[in-house]
């Protein structure tokens, strides 16, 4: 049997008469969260959109046109409907099947091919999304680590400068008090708000200064003072 998406012959209509369900535009076949009643549908003519609620908004996640199945995934994954199916075409003719009709579908070469193609499509999409998500997570972790390293470099140089300069009698006493206050504020903020960064700083051992110095990020005047401070440790 060949299913023409543009035409339903009388012989086919007669054979599937008990399964036929008609819908009009904007009708819902079922909605996300509804209990699964065991039914799934073959879209015989027309098209539908599959929607899921994301952050309180209804988002289109799939577009399905005739001839194809919808609602079949819940047969394999028990639970409520995982999405809403809404009619997008002016009208839609479908065949509504029950779980008990699976045997009939699986022994029909055309219907079984349609169903298996749909299910393997789900598997491929899931696999692709998993790989993409893994790649995205790895990229974010790399970016986080790189950002943390750069912040450790910066704060280690700032801490070194703030620890050294007030003790050199280079500034008036009031300025020394300000600098010590800034140093304490940085240390407290890192400890409370960015504990991971604070831990990395405790174990930096002047590597941050060397990294920034090698990248020529520290002015020579400041670099000279900090090198002397490191030598005097």
The number of distinct helices, counting runs of at least 4 residues, comes to 8
Strand order of the largest sheet: 1-8-3-6
Q: Summarize the biggest pleated sheet.
A: 4 strands, antiparallel
Estimate nothing, just give the exact number of structural domains.
2
Number of DSSP strand runs: 8
End-to-end separation: 87 Å
CATH topology category name of the largest domain: Jelly Rolls
SSE blueprint:
Elements: H1 10-15, E1 20-24, E2 28-30, E3 39-45, E4 47-54, E5 57-65, E6 68-70, H2 73-76, E7 84-87, E8 91-98, H3 102-107, H4 109-164, H5 173-193, H6 195-202, H7 207-214, H8 220-231
Helix pairs in contact: 4-5, 4-6, 4-7, 4-8, 5-6
Quick synopsis:
This protein is α+β, with helices and mostly antiparallel strands and 233 residues long.
Report on the structure:
The chain folds into two domains: 10-120, Jelly Rolls (Sandwich); 142-231, no CATH class. The protein has helices at residues 10-15, 73-76, 102-107, 109-164, 173-193, 195-202, 207-214, 220-231; strands at 20-24, 28-30, 39-45, 47-54, 57-65, 68-70, 84-87, 91-98. The termini are far apart. The protein has a four-stranded antiparallel sheet. The protein has 233 residues and is an alpha+beta fold.
Features:
single chain, 233 residues, Jelly Rolls, 2 domains, 4-stranded antiparallel beta sheet, 8 helices, 52% helix
């Amino acid at each position: 049997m060949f299913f023409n998406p543009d035409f339903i012959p009388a012989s086919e209509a007669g054979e599937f008469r008990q399964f036929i369900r008609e819908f009009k535009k904007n009708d819902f076949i079922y909605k996300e969260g509804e209990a699964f009643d065991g039914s799934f549908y073959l879209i015989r003519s027309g098209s539908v959109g599959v929607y899921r609620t994301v952050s309180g908004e209804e988002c289109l996640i799939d577009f399905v046109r005739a001839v194809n199945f919808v609602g079949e995934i819940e047969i394999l994954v028990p639970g409520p409907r995982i999405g809403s199916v809404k009619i997008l075409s002016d009208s839609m003719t479908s065949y509504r099947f029950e779980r008990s009709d699976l045997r009939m579908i699986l022994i029909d070469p055309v219907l079984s091919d349609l169903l298996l193609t749909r299910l393997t499509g789900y598997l491929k999409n899931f696999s692709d999304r998993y790989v993409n998500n893994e790649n995205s997570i790895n990229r974010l972790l790399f970016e986080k680590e790189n950002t943390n390293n750069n912040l450790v470099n910066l704060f280690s140089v700032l801490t070194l400068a703030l620890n050294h300069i007030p003790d050199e009698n280079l500034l008036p006493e009031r300025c020394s008090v300000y600098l010590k206050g800034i140093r304490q504020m940085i240390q407290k903020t890192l400890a409370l708000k960015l504990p991971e960064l604070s831990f990395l700083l405790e174990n930096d051992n002047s590597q941050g200064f060397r990294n920034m110095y090698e990248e020529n990020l520290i002015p020579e005047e400041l670099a000279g003072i900090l090198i002397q401070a490191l030598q005097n440790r």
